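hey can u run this one w/ magnesium ion bound, need the C-alpha cells asap thx
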Amino acid sequence: MTDDDFSTTVYYDDDADESYLQSKTVAVLGYGSQGHAHALNLHESGFDVVVGLRESSDSWPVAEEDGLDVATPREAAAQADVVSILVPDTVQPAVFEEIEPALDEGDTVQFAHGFNVHYNQIRPPEDVDVTLVAPKSPGHIVRRNYERDEGTPGLLAVYQDATGEAAQEALAYAKGIGCTRAGVIETTFAEETETDLFGEQAVLCGGVTSLVKQGFETMVDAGYSPEMAYFEVLNELKLIVDLMYEDGLGGMWHSVSYTAEYGGLTRGDRVVDEDVRENMEEILEEVQNGEFAREWILENQAGRPKFDQLVQAEEDHEIEAVGEDLRALFSWSEDDESDEQESEP
Ligand code: NAD
Ligand code: MG
Ligand code: MG
Ligand code: MG
Ligand code: MG
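ok here u go:
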C-alpha cells in the first residue's frame, strides 16, 4: 500500500474493498458542496444512500429530483450504519446533538473536516467508529471528476476505531466517491485540521488576499491607475498560479522572462521576509493551541459581529469595484467554470 515516493501511506482503488460498505446504509447529512457530490457518487457506485435534510430545506426537492431518498437528519441517521456529516462546520455540533440518540453501537460517524472532533465540539460515544474522508477539492469538482471517470485526491483518518474495521470502511467510502482513483493519503484528525486551517489562513485565503491588496494599494498610492494595478496583481496571479500548479515553482520560473525571474528571486524574500515567517509561526501556534478555534466558536455564538464587519470592509475595497468593471469587459474568460459552480445546489 505504501508508495515509495511518499513519506506517508497513499491508497488507490486496489487497496479498497467495497464489501466493507456493501450491505450498509450511508446517511449523507447536508446537500451542499460536499454533500451532493458524496451522495450522488456513492449512489452511482451502487451504495445505499439516504440524504438527511431539514424539512424546510430548499435542497430537499433537489435531492429527490436527483433520484435520492431524503429524510430528516434524525430519521436518516436512524436508518444508517454510516452517518456522513456534511453540513457546515459551524452547525455540526447542533446537528450531531440531534442525531446522537439515533446512533447504534458499531455505527460510523464520518466527517470531511476534523475541526469539531479535534477541538472537542463534538464528542461521539465510545461505541461508534469516527472517521474522516476529505476530498482535497470543492464538491462540484469531486462530482465532475467522478462523472468523467477521473478521481479527486483525498485524505483519510481514523479518530476512533470501535469495530476494528473503521479504516477499511472509510476506504470503501473513499472509493465510492472516486477518491481512490487519484490517491487517498492517510492522516490524523489533528494533522488534517491544523494543516487545513493554517493553509487557508496564512497562504491560500488570508495570505494571498493581503498580498494582492498591499500590492494594489502600493501602486495606486504611487499614482498608477487602479486598472493597471488590478491587472498586474490580481488578474495575472491566476496565470502564475496555473504554471506553479502544472509544473511547480520551476515550471513558473521557466515560463516567465529572465527579468521577471531575476527580479522575483531577488525581491520576493524582501516582501515576504523573516517577520512574515514569524507571523506565520504565531498563526500556526494559535491553530495548534486552540486559540483560533475558541475565537471562531465564540464569534459564532455572538452572531458573528466581527466577521460581518470584516466581510463588509473587504467588499468595500477599491480593488473589488475596479475588478467588477474590468471583468465585465472580458466576460468571455472562465465563464464555463463559474457557471458550473453556481449551478450546483
Ligand atoms: P455547504 O455549506 O456547501 O453545505 C451545507 C449543507 O448543509 C447545505 O445543504 C445546507 O442546506 C445544509 N444545512 C445547513 N444547516 C443545516 C442544518 N442545521 N441541518 C441540516 N442541514 C443543514 O458545506 P460544505 O462546504 O459542503 O461543507 C461540508 C463539510 O465538508 C465541512 O465539514 C467542510 O469543512 C468540509 N469540506 C468542504 C470542502 C469544500 O471545498 N467546500 C472541502 C473539503 C471538506
Ligand atoms: Mg444506525
Ligand atoms: Mg483545505
Ligand atoms: Mg478549510
Ligand atoms: Mg508583468
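Residues 30-35, 53-54, 57, 59, 73, 86-89, 91, 95, 112-113, 134-135, 138-139 surround nicotinamide-adenine-dinucleotide (ligand 1) (CB under 6 Å). anyway lmk if its weird
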